[in-house]
Amino acid sequence: AQDDFLERTLELAPEFGSFRQLFANTGIVQRHAAVPLDWIMQQHGWVERNEVFSVVAPRLVEEVALQLMQQTGTAAAEIDAVVIACTTGIAVPSLDAGLANRLGLRSDIERLPLFGLGCAGGITGLARAASLARARPGSNVLFIAVELCTINGRITDRRMANFISAALFGDGAAGVLLRSL
Fold this sequence. Notes:
The chain is α/β, with parallel strands linked by helices. Helices cover 44% and strands 17% of the residues.
């Protein structure tokens, strides 16, 4: 719950107590997190955070892809391109390559991993996926954005920007299957 996250955040940074309304003003009631709240409130290094990312992000990407394929009646063999946008972790092989292997996508699909675009990743990825779909009428282009912001929180960072980030960002994935006619 957003209120639980606020209370735990203020335990670590009580100096932001006068800004508690900021959390309520986001409109967020419930958020998703890749890890328990206790994990988020502890100091973690890059290796530990990316270990979580390497388990959770591929699972979320696969769940979204399977839901989209089921909802649209699209078989794995019918996917022509995959675009995945992410900023909050690094995967080698990339998330799109792992997804292609797990779903048994064709070996000739076009893959486009997008990294480091931050908040612009979703719209940039969607634009690239739409361009791919328009370039090949009738093709199926899978676009997924996945972010695990909570694993990258800096509990020792006492800047207002970090407090605002804590109020806004959770973990999740979303996608769309595009086809131009």
